[in-house]
Amino acid sequence: MPPTIVHFHDDPEGAHSLDALLVAAGYGRLITCGYSRYAVDLIQQIVPDLVLVDITREPSTSGWRLVEEIARNPESRGTPIIVCAADSSNPAVADLGCAVVSKPIVPDDLLQQVAHALGA
User: Rounded to whole angstroms, how far apart are CA atoms 11 and 53?
Assistant: First the structure.
């Protein structure tokens, strides 16, 4: 079964192009949604293989807060998280063990991080 990737994005247009890249690379089980107070509940229900959080609108405290909530929640703590952000200097990245892909996104860099996170 292909891996399930949950993709949180604060910009629907940007989400579409990132999803197209992942689908073209063979990652066809994508669930894409915006930030929400139900995000952690969604992660617990779906139990994805990877969480991808794309932070477009900087500074986005809601994006970083979402990353922290997912990483610190006991039921989703072991799920790999990749953060795509122009500013990766947030201390949460090191503290929570998230991988970071700097923006602008280089497709090969993102796909390499996804493969690594999925153990491929």
Answer: 11
User: Which DSSP category does 80 fall into?
Assistant: -
pLDDT digits (tens, 9 = 90+) for 76-105: 888 999 999 887 777 667 778 889 898 899
Token couple for 81 = 């998280």
pLDDT digits (tens, 9 = 90+) for 24-45: 999 989 999 887 778 888 898 9
Distance of alpha carbon 107 from alpha carbon 120, whole angstroms: 17
80 lies in which domain range?
4-117
CATH code for the domain of 92: 3.40.50.2300
User: Which pTM value belongs to this model?
Assistant: 0.90
Distance CA 78, CA 11 (A): 26
Distance separating alpha carbons of residues 102 and 78, to the nearest angstrom: 23
Question: Structural domain tally of the chain?
Answer: 1
The count of other CB atoms within 10 Å of the CB of residue 86 is 14
H or E element at residue 81 = strand 81-85
